[in-house]
Structures are given as C-alpha cells and as structure tokens.
Specification:
7 helices
Length: about 110
C-alpha cells in the first residue's frame, strides 16, 4: 500500500489530505463531525493542533470554548479539556466546529 511504501500508516496519510478551510468551522452538524473524527485520535491533540487542523485560529478556538464555559489553553489536549468538564473529546470538537453547540448535560 501507499502507506507501507512510505513507512507510515493509512491514518497518518489521511491526516495529510487537504481539507476545505474555514467552511468546516461552524457549518457541520454534530453527527457529521462525530462520523468524520471518530477514531482519529483527537483526544491526544492539543487545542492548538486541532484548531490548526480544522483551520480555526487558536484565539478563536479559545473564545468559542470560553463562550461555552470551558476555559482553555492551546497546550491542553482535547482529552484534558473533556475530562475536566465530564465529557468526551468529540464533544469539545463539536463545540469548536458547530456554531452554538453546547454540552448536553442531560435531564
């Protein structure tokens, strides 16, 4: 496979594929984000890395999380942010990518 020829994994190659810029941030529905990002290891990414991957300026990512009541720094991983707020990294990603998305605290 192409990945083997280059001494890497298919997932590592997938991350390198160009993605549409800015159009993703704020335009996807939560289910589409979950389908796109599940299994991609986003919990291990820092906020700065994830924001860069999704073409969101870091200061905007920090602002979006602050609006949702989640103070954050660029060097924190999505997993750290999620654990601190009793949720999953994918939920943090949704807050960054879907305008107005907030954590569902349940009944």
């Amino acid at each position: 496979s192409l990945a083997q020829v280059h001494g890497t994994t298919p997932a590592a190659l997938f991350v390198l594929l160009p993605r549409p810029t800015q159009a993703l941030a704020g335009s996807e529905d939560p289910q589409a984000i979950e389908a796109r990002l599940t299994g991609m290891g986003i919990g291990a990414k820092t906020l700065a890395d994830f924001a860069g991957q999704e073409a969101i300026p870091l200061d905007e990512a920090v602002r979006r999380l602050a609006v949702a009541g989640i103070p954050a720094r660029g060097d924190e991983t999505l997993k750290q942010l999620a654990e601190r707020h009793g949720t999953r990294p994918i939920e943090i990603a949704k807050m960054l990518l879907v305008s107005g998305y907030t954590l569902d605290k349940g009944p």
